[in-house]
Write a structure and sequence with these properties.
Layout: E1 2-8, H1 14-25, E2 36-44, E3 47-57, E4 60-68, H2 71-103
Parallel strand pairs: 1-2
Antiparallel strand pairs: 2-3, 3-4
Length: 107
């Protein structure tokens, strides 16, 4: 899984970027199905915004957005949302493949 962290319109310390990279790698259990994961960190006045974009193959792109007064809490919230979205996405496709396999006539 490829990861990329972008910082928009504000300078975050290098430790924040590294922390974000480590957190993205925590989603490595989906690495065999996720092609790339991008994180965009942005600060607008006192609010921090984190957007995560996951490319999961077959043209599917999953996007989550979180905002908070602290960068770390916005990142944690975005990661939790992305994990739930990945779970839901892959479970939905797993069920669809099982139904497809069961509906095919044997012979």
């Amino acid at each position: 899984m490829q990861t990329h962290v972008s910082v928009l319109h504000h300078d975050y310390p290098a430790t924040t970027r590294e922390h974000c990279e480590q957190k993205l790698q925590a989603l490595a259990r989906y690495a065999d199905r996720v092609i790339s994961m991008k994180a965009m960190l942005e600060r607008v006045h006192a609010e921090h915004r984190v957007e995560l974009v996951a490319s999961v193959g077959h043209g599917a792109v999953l996007v989550v957005d979180a905002r908070s007064d602290h960068a770390s809490s916005a990142l944690d919230e975005a990661l939790a949302r992305m994990e739930r979205l990945l779970d839901r996405h892959f479970k939905k496709h797993l069920v669809a493949r099982r139904r497809e396999r069961l509906s095919k006539p044997h012979g």
